């Protein structure tokens, strides 16, 4: 076994060959990933050996693995020996991984969210022995043509890389391992939720204003119609809950559905107290209440659309710009 050089540099390149289903409920995604690693091997300098003539079990290895893989992914490994113009030897490891990867999804903007799909490569050796860095010659790649979940997600072509040291043994924080995270990004297509949840909820809440047409002397009929609309809104909320993990914060869809239920509740409360008002002022007061509620609901919907454009959609515009910069970077590198 060759001696491990001090702080060996291992160059990493990750290629998302095939991105499969993105499971929001389980917070994971499936993918076929190619992880390429390259490092110096001074003992083979100037020998011009091929991979068939080398026993790689006796050659130093950084012992890489995927930190956020779930279960037992299928892996195939292949080694090559590369030489530069000076005769310096490099070991090239190509690892094809087919499996499921865990991802902590940020669902604040659901269903207008953009999610990171990350593959984290870690060395089993401590960070003072091995440092994982980006490959200087090879680029991370996302194969968009083989994306499986195209109907529900839009996959961007750019990638981002970040390096960190992670602690494996919580009992001893001094032992850290070098890790390199490569992420691509996918934006959810919100059309299904807009037409089937947002639009239907908007119509249900709008119908609550029709209950004002029932005679005020029959509050039981008004309340019956309003309670029916509330139960319908609750049913829609249950459908949304079944498509999301149990998170402790509100998504954009949660906020909209809760606002609609608050509006329906206010309408129900008004129908319950309208009969207690004096007959002389009852009609005028109800006209004011109906007008105020209608204006508030209209302003809320306009403000909600503006908030979506300013915040969740701004992130999508940023992703489009990063795709454009990534494409221009590839064209620039191809010229030189």
TrEMBL record:
Coiled coil: none annotated. Residues 8-156 form the Neurotransmitter-gated ion-channel ligand-binding domain. GO terms for molecular function: extracellular ligand-gated monoatomic ion channel activity; transmembrane signaling receptor activity. It is a multi-pass membrane protein. It is found in: Membrane. One of its GO terms (cellular component) is membrane. Signal peptide: none annotated. Its main location: membrane. Gene3D superfamilies: Neurotransmitter-gated ion-channel ligand-binding domain (2.70.170.10), Neurotransmitter-gated ion-channel transmembrane domain (1.20.58.390). The chain crosses the membrane at residues 193-213, 225-244, 256-275, 287-311. Keywords: Membrane, Transmembrane, Transmembrane helix. SUPFAM superfamilies: Neurotransmitter-gated ion-channel transmembrane pore, Nicotinic receptor ligand binding domain-like. This is Neurotransmitter-gated ion-channel ligand-binding domain-containing protein. It comes from Mytilus galloprovincialis (Mediterranean mussel). The lineage of its organism: Eukaryota, Metazoa, Spiralia, Lophotrochozoa, Mollusca.
């Amino acid at each position: 076994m060759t001696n491990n050089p001090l702080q060996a540099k291992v160059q990493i390149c990750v290629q998302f060959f095939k991105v499969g289903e993105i499971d929001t409920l389980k917070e994971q995604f499936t993918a076929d990933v190619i992880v390429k690693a390259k490092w110096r091997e001074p003992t083979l300098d100037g020998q011009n050996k091929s991979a068939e003539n080398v026993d790689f079990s006796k050659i130093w290895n950084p012992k890489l693995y995927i930190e956020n893989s779930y279960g037992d992914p299928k892996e195939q490994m292949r080694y090559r020996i590369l030489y530069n113009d000076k005769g310096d030897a490099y070991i090239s490891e190509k690892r094809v991984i087919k499996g499921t990867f865990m991802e902590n999804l940020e669902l604040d903007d659901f269903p207008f969210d953009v999610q990171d799909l990350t593959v984290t490569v870690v060395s089993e050796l401590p960070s003072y022995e091995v440092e994982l860095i980006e490959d200087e010659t090879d680029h991370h790649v996302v194969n968009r043509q083989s994306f499986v979940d195209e109907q529900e997600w839009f996959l961007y072509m750019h990638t981002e890389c970040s390096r960190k040291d992670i602690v494996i043994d919580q009992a001893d924080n001094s032992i850290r391992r070098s890790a390199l995270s490569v992420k691509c990004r996918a934006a959810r297509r919100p059309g299904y939720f807009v037409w089937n949840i947002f639009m239907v909820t908007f119509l249900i809440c709008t119908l609550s204003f029709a209950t004002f047409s029932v005679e005020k002397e029959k509050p039981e009929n008004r309340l019956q119609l309003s309670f029916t609309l509330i139960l319908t809104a609750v049913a829609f909320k249950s459908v949304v809950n079944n498509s999301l993990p149990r998170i402790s914060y509100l998504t954009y869809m949660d906020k909209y559905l809760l606002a609609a239920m608050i509006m329906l509740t206010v309408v129900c409360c008004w129908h319950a107290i309208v009969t207690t008002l004096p007959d002389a002022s009852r009609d005028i007061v109800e006209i004011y209440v109906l007008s105020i509620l209608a204006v508030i609901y209209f302003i809320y919907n306009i403000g909600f659309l503006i908030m979506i454009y300013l915040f969740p959609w701004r992130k999508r515009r940023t992703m489009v710009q990063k795709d454009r910069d990534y494409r221009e970077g590839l064209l620039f590198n191809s010229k030189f």
